[in-house]
Structure formats: structure tokens, C-alpha cells
């Protein structure tokens, strides 16, 4: 495992972040997480472009070009020697006296860690995850992959203490996304998910799944739906870079069948995409 802070590779445990770094004083920055299978980054271009989009949205000038960032990731991967890894990239607005307005001149700081991928227990993929729903108390720009994750942290902790794996945000009854995942339901063979508006993160896994679905002839509806629709779904699953396509077995008090043809099909197709990367 290895890290990078502000122009150099450092030990993963090195203490390198200065007190007045804005990432930890304000959460003033953005991030990305990229999964690596068999030493090969998965959908790296898409992640880097989303990073650029997040940077533009907060008027942050990236300290490196996307090409340079890609090369840093590849160099880091090689130095780490890891095969099943997660690349975490963070860009903060830098180090400055603690004042809210932007530093002048701009001085963004690039941070990266490359660590072993979190292992998702295989029984979760078979049995499914339990989720609870919770009011979405986040800001209106959740399409930005911002470092401000306090509501997500609170929601995930609420899930954990209630014996669940994930919390699903709803805004006045409209189902948005999970605390670190996107949410899908299947009803009568049709796949439903909240549209890619500003109120959710436009997950890379979400867009992969939508593409796989349309290639398979599964009808897709990207329109808001409410909690009752979620409870009455035939199948529910969540997606993310680290969880991939993950079935849901329970939402609040409602249990779901383990017969889930659409979810299983998408898991199978997602695995085929991974296999393409793994075998090069
Ligand atoms: N929604 C939120 C709030 C997230 O934090 C994440 C990822 O961490 C996702 C959705 C899933 O996005 P992706 O598939 O790009 O990992």
C-alpha cells in the first residue's frame, strides 16, 4: 500500500497533512475512488472525467492534467505491486490561513492512496444486503463528489447500529440514492432508478448498469419514485465502485424474494465486463 501527497510518493502511514489544509478544516475539496482488478484500473477515464466535472463545479483548478493524474495512478499502482486495489484520489483547495474564501493564488493539493480493495463477503452477493431508509438532509449538489460527507457518515452509522449494510436517502418520500451507492428497483421487468439530476451522484457503476440493461433489452425508466414503490418492487439492488451490483434482501421492514432474474442477469453481465479487464 502506498500514498502520494503534494508532489511525492510517501509511506501510507506518513504524517503529511498540515494543520491548515482545507480538506480537513472545511472539507473543501473533491475525491474519486477507482477499482483495480488484476492490476488494471476499471473505467478510469470515466472516473477522471467525473473528477474534472466535480473540480469545475467547485471552481477548483486541478493541479495536474487528467493525463498526469492517470500516469500518477499507474505509477502508484506499480510501486504498490497490488493487483486487487482501490485508488483513492483527493484534491483539496490547499493550505492557507483559515479563512472561508479561496486561497490566493490557488494552490490545490493532490492526495492519493492505493490500498487493498475492500472485500465484499460473497454471502452478501447471494443473500443480499439489508438497508434502511432515512431522510435526505444533504445539500442540493450531490452530483459533486465533495469531501463534505457528514450526512453520508451519519446515515451509514444509523444503518450499522440498526443491523443494516446501507442507508437509502429519500427526499420527502422520493427515493434518491444510498449513502455511498445508487439505488435501483425492478417492477414487472422494468428497471427504475432516480434520474441523473443534481440531487444524486452520477455513479459510474450506475451508468454501466444502465448501459448493460439497454444492451440486454431490459427497459429502463430514469424517473423519481417514492418509498411505496420501493417497498412494492419485485427486486431491489444497489451499485457502487466497491460493491459492484449488490442485491438488497430487505428495505426497512419489507423483505424481498431471493428470486431476482434481472439483478442476477446484470451481476452476470457486470462480471463479464470485469473478466474483459482481468484477462486484458
Ligand atoms: N452515491 C454516492 C453518494 C456515492 O458516494 C457513491 C460512491 O461512492 C455512489 C453513489 C456510487 O458511485 P460509483 O458507482 O461511481 O462508485
TrEMBL record:
GO biological process: amino acid biosynthetic process; carboxylic acid biosynthetic process
Organism: Salipaludibacillus aurantiacus
Lineage: Bacteria, Bacillati, Bacillota, Bacilli, Bacillales
Cofactor(s) essential for the protein: pyridoxal 5'-phosphate
Protein name (Swiss-Prot/TrEMBL): D-alanine transaminase
Domain of life per record: Bacteria
Keywords: Pyridoxal phosphate
Molecular functions per Gene Ontology: catalytic activity
Gene3D superfamilies documented for this protein: 3.30.470.10, D-amino Acid Aminotransferase, subunit A, domain 2 (3.20.10.10)
Pfam families (UniProt xref): Aminotran_4
Amino acid at each position: 500500500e502506498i500514498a502520494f501527497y503534494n508532489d511525492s510518493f510517501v509511506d501510507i502511514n506518513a504524517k503529511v497533512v498540515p494543520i491548515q489544509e482545507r480538506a480537513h478544516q472545511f472539507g473543501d475539496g473533491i475525491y474519486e475512488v477507482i477499482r483495480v482488478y488484476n492490476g488494471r484500473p476499471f473505467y478510469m477515464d470515466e472516473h477522471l472525467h467525473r473528477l474534472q466535472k466535480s473540480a469545475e463545479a467547485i471552481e477548483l483548478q486541478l493541479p495536474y492534467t487528467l493525463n498526469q493524474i492517470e500516469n500518477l495512478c499507474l505509477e502508484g499502482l506499480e510501486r504498490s505491486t497490488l493487483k486487487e486495489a482501490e485508488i483513492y484520489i483527493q484534491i483539496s483547495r490547499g493550505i492557507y490561513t483559515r479563512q472561508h474564501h479561496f486561497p490566493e493564488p490557488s494552490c490545490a493539493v493532490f492526495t492519493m492512496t492505493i490500498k487493498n480493495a475492500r472485500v465484499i463477503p460473497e454471502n452478501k452477493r447471494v443473500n443480499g444486503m439489508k438497508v434502511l431508509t432515512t431522510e435526505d438532509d444533504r445539500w442540493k449538489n450531490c452530483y459533486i463528489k465533495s469531501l463534505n460527507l457528514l450526512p453520508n457518515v451519519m446515515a451509514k452509522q444509523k444503518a450499522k447500529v440498526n443491523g443494516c449494510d446501507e442507508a437509502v436517502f429519500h427526499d420527502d418520500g422520493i427515493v434518491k440514492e444510498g449513502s455511498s451507492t445508487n439505488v435501483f428497483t425492478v417492477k414487472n421487468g422494468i428497471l427504475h432508478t432516480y434520474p441523473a439530476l443534481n440531487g444524486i451522484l452520477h455513479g459510474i457503476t450506475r451508468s454501466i448498469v444502465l448501459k448493460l440493461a439497454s444492451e440486454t433489452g431490459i427497459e429502463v425508466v430514469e424517473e423519481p419514485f417514492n418509498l411505496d414503490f420501493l417497498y412494492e418492487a419485485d427486486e431491489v439492488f444497489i451499485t457502487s465502485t466497491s460493491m459492484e451490483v449488490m442485491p438488497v434482501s430487505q428495505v426497512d421492514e419489507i423483505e424481498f424474494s431471493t428470486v431476482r432474474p434481472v439483478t442476477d442477469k446484470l451481476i452476470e453481465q457486470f462480471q463479464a465486463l470485469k473478466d474483459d479487464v482481468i484477462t486484458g
